[in-house]
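Sequence in, structure out.
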Amino acid sequence: MIKYRRFFSFLCGILLVVSMTGCGYRAETESGTTPYAAAASMESTPIVDYAVPQMSANILVDLRGYSSWDIKRAALKGLELPEGFRLIDAETGEMVYNGTISSVRYNEELNLYLGYADFSSFTREGRYYLECDTIGQSYRFEIREQYYQELFDENYELMTAECATGALSVADAMDLLEAFEWYGSMFVDEDEDKLPDVLEVLKTWVSHKESSGVEDEETALYAAFLAKFSFNYQNYDRQYATDCLKRASTVFGQVQNAISKDADSFFALTELYRATGLESYRNQIADYKSFFENNSSYWEEVGYLYGIMTYMATRQKVDVDMCQAFIGELMDRAEEISAHYEDMIHPVTARNNGSGELLKRAIVVSCANYVMNIYQYTNIVEKIMHYLMGENLESMSFYEQDTDRSGYLLLLTQLAAHAVDFPQE
């Protein structure tokens, strides 16, 4: 009897080892190795390497939210889609709106149905989420009357805080100044000293840069900044503006002979020419004409784009043919983006090369919109922003993850200004 008990205990021990090694044991024996290898490995620290499937929401929303006057639309995906959706107050759990899912299509490549939930007519401020039978809930988001204004303020405060300590990069300072030049009414004068606060803080930033210096690769852009700052500051302190312009000319002279033609140098030339009207700068701008005629890649560089906007806006004598070519090419570019942007930012099947590319496209459209003031272009910029803030397959806010927020500033300034000028009823 004792022998049977010992045998039974021994058998149970063998079964326990087999059950613990599981599929790993079978894999070892099938590969031709000793069947004792798995049992021996139990004495060491087990290695666990599970592949966890990536989870994503089936209702894709802007994670930050929507303006109460904005078009509010979420994308839905699933093996099947219900007929309707519900908007739920996240604080009370109360259903505050419901609607029918529209534009349902089947995507064979993904084996999914895709559709949209439009809740644009709901305008009450608050925190909400969307809910559908069978596919679940969205992430929480807000509806705010001053949505774009609040995002603009957030970026503005971050940038001016860095500005005050001199930590802001030259490129970011230029973005801040560009946004002020285009949409000055969006920048407040809290101390009511007749000087916009942004110019005061940028003046402090200039002092820091004059003390600490700038990197060699930033020198041409810094010259462009000083010339643009001088132009915008002249109505508040003409002497200081003149000093900045002289400094811009000196800085540009230091790099003029050391580098070939590039975007930042062109930008500096346009700013210096607008501020001074000197023929020498105009002639150097004319030297770029053949480059522009034989190359379209310059639209990919912000320095060229901003320089072109300055050149077209100046009251100095310009090459009319060059200006006409610029405006024609800018509008063609904007129309091309308008025709294809839905493919670039489709919530599920988007085709783009990341947030950087989308921001470049949005800035081109913003430039065209500044010139022409077309609602369609504002709408495109809005949709690109919604995609970047969560209406994408991963439900990821690129806006939150991008450490450099300056690329968003001009877009948010434009959208906030548009909200003031053209609020929905």
